[in-house]
From TrEMBL:
GO terms for cellular component: endoplasmic reticulum membrane. Belongs to the group II decarboxylase family. Sphingosine-1-phosphate lyase subfamily. This is sphinganine-1-phosphate aldolase. GO terms for molecular function: pyridoxal phosphate binding; sphinganine-1-phosphate aldolase activity.
Length: 427
């Protein structure tokens, strides 16, 4: 492993705190605790609750804690391998629910353009039609009127994010809830990224619009323990308003020759060690730990947004992000914000480039909190560089430019992306 690490030196070092999101570190003590939980439960598998009853109990308690956090203590849920699986499971649940209760055989979902690609991925796996709805250019919230128009007799669910990945803004969940109730369709609120930040905003004294199960019409919520919950990577929770709805997520085969097979999510065998690590993280952090982490992280994000607005006139912050993510675009045609991103990369930063509009975002983590002053100073410098000597190239720019401008662009980018995945498996 030392040799492997040595060979990889020169790549981005996440310890420096210059990475957007990606590493949700809860501190060295918590890290050690998680590792000891792994050691203790490394061979455990919740597929066999009779052999590993403690793991079963820990999973139940993780779900229960999240339900309480999202104000639905009598609801139901399961843990999954991450946000994507939680979302795919929600899509599958609504598909089976709509087929059983409404006879829908050609299901459709209505998804904001700002929602995570996991909804499209789930729909692609499950052969479901997606209506992609634009967001308001100023608020960055999904256009609720257009969501309303897209709903038809085949709609199984609509989607809102709290918060979304591209710009960290929150959709109008109350308005979406009204639509969902009126049309009797599911409303999934994606809190994968909002995870352990959104539920603590109010108590931490930050303004927040309603987003959880207290909103009428919200029927499911995904929350990633492995993001701001500081759990080990590979854990998320999908929650439902009630246990009846969760039933549609299960796969049960009573006729299998290997015995009655029942499993709650995609995987069969699952790593009990990750559940133990997650449970340990939740116990370690507790309410007060998450409240403090919310305070620190969101304060840093608000400072970044404020300083960009007041100190860097060439940039504008997208919408009014309530939590930990801040996205910014260029104010002027002569400044390409992705070139600013390139200049930031040269300074060791790893920001996310987003499109529509072209922008960069940073998801603040505990690691980036002490780096706010450096970020703003480097950003000012990067804007100067990109303005004075626009290169017209650079990795971010080239790929995104290709994707947007040429009719074969996105196909070509798709081929490049697939080739990239191939390279990941070159030993
Ligand atoms: C809003 C949102 N939803 C879903 C996901 C998917 O989570 P995962 O990468 O754990 O599958 C992410 C990941 O960043 C996200 O930001």
């Amino acid at each position: 492993m030392e040799k492997m690490d040595a060979e990889s030196s020169g790549h981005v070092d996440w310890h420096e705190g210059k990475i957007s999101g990606a590493v949700y570190h809860g501190g060295e003590d918590l890290q050690r605790l998680i590792v000891s939980a792994f050691e203790r439960y490394s061979v455990s598998n919740p597929l066999h609750p009779d052999v590993f009853p403690a793991v079963r109990k820990m999973e139940a308690e993780i779900v229960s804690m999240c339900l309480k956090m999202y104000n639905n203590p009598n609801g139901a849920g399961v843990t999954t391998s991450g946000g994507t699986e939680s979302i795919i499971m929600a899509v599958k649940t609504y598909r089976d629910w709509a087929r059983a209760t409404k006879g829908i055989t050609e299901p459709e979902i209505v998804v904001p353009i700002s929602a995570h690609a996991a909804f499209d991925k789930g729909a692609a796996y499950l052969k479901i039609k997606v209506h992609t709805i634009p967001v308001d250019p100023v608020t960055r919230q999904v256009d609720v009127k257009r969501v309303s128009r897209a709903i038809n007799a085949n709609t199984i669910m609509i989607v809102g994010s709290a918060v979304n990945f591209p710009d960290g803004c929150q959709d109008d969940i109350v308005a979406l809830g009204k639509l969902a109730s009126k049309h009797k369709v599911g409303l999934h609120v994606d809190c994968c990224l909002g995870s352990f930040i959104m539920p603590f905003l109010e108590e931490a004294g930050f303004p927040v619009e309603p987003f959880d199960f207290r909103v009428e019409g919200v029927t499911s919520i995904s929350c990633d323990t492995h993001k701001y919950g500081f759990a080990p990577k590979g854990n998320s929770v999908i929650m439902y308003r009630d246990a009846e709805l969760r039933r549609f997520q299960y796969y049960v085969n009573p006729n299998w020759v290997g015995g009655v097979y029942a499993s709650p999510s995609i995987a069969g065998s699952r790593p009990g060690a990750l559940i133990a690590g997650t449970w340990a993280a939740l116990q370690y952090m507790g309410h007060s730990g998450y409240l403090e982490s919310c305070r620190t992280i969101v304060s840093a994000a608000k400072t970044i947004a404020h300083r960009i607005k007041t100190e860097i006139p060439e940039l504008r912050v997208l919408g009014q992000p309530p939590a930990s993510v801040v996205a910014f675009a260029s104010q002027h045609a002569d400044l390409n914000v992705h070139e600013v991103g390139d200049a930031m990369s040269k300074k060791g930063w790893h920001l996310n480039a987003i499109t529509n509009p072209a922008a960069l975002h940073i998801a603040v983590t505990r690691l980036t909190v002490p780096m706010v002053d450096n970020l703003i100073a480097d950003l000012k410098d990067a804007v100067r560089v990109a303005k004075l000597a626009p290169s017209g190239k650079g990795t971010m720019v080239t790929l995104y430019g290709l994707g947007q401008s040429s009719p074969v662009g996105s196909t070509l980018v798709g081929h490049v992306a697939a080739a990239f995945l191939d390279t990941l498996y070159k030993a």
